[in-house]
Amino acid sequence: MYGLLLMGHSIWRWIVLLLIVITVVKALIGWLSKQKWSNLDARLLVFSRIAVYIQVVLGVILYTVSPMYGNVQFTGGHVIVALLSVGGLEFGAARAKKVADGVNKFKFALIGFAIALVLVLLAIGEATWWKLA
Ligand code: HEM
Fold this sequence. Notes:
There is one protein chain. The protein is mostly helical. It has one domain. 87% of the residues lie in helices and 0% in strands. It contains 4 helices and no strands. The chain has helices at 2-32, 39-65, 72-98, 102-132. The radius of gyration is 16 Å and the shape is elongated. 30% of the residues are buried. The model has no long low-confidence stretch (mean pLDDT 97). Protoporphyrin IX containing FE is lined by residues 6, 9-10, 13, 16, 52, 55-56, 59-60, 62-63, 66-68, 78-79, 82-83, 85, 120, 123-124, 127, 131.
């Protein structure tokens, strides 16, 4: 059970990273070249968020059976940082949905998802550090 969850959580990180990176790059290009906001752009925000939520659910279950349960440094550096990344995604997606014009949609998606990307990378870095330590 633990091994399977750890493997799933470990592999799923690549889906999370791929989707967030594509979303950030697409938002940056859209913002700089003043593109029209398309259905694909809206869908990328949704798919990235779903991928992260799946990762969080896997992580929460994994946490309960992991030797890292209750470890203050791991919880602060991995769990809390990963959960904060959800704030970036939700901020970007909510603001992008609220504003009317395309350029601002790209701008908010870019800001929120770039913040999330940095936090996800930090969370992965912390988990990798523990694995190597
Ligand atoms: C975007 C969100 C997240 C990403 C990208 C992510 C990524 C990772 C990665 C790459 C590992 C190392 C896997 C390995 O050693 O092969 C890991 C381990 C782990 N993560 Fe996450 N994680 C995320 C969120 C969470 C959350 C929200 C929790 C808990 C509530 C969590 C709990 C854990 C636990 C318990 C481990 C395993 C520690 C161990 O037993 O070695 N993760 N995570």
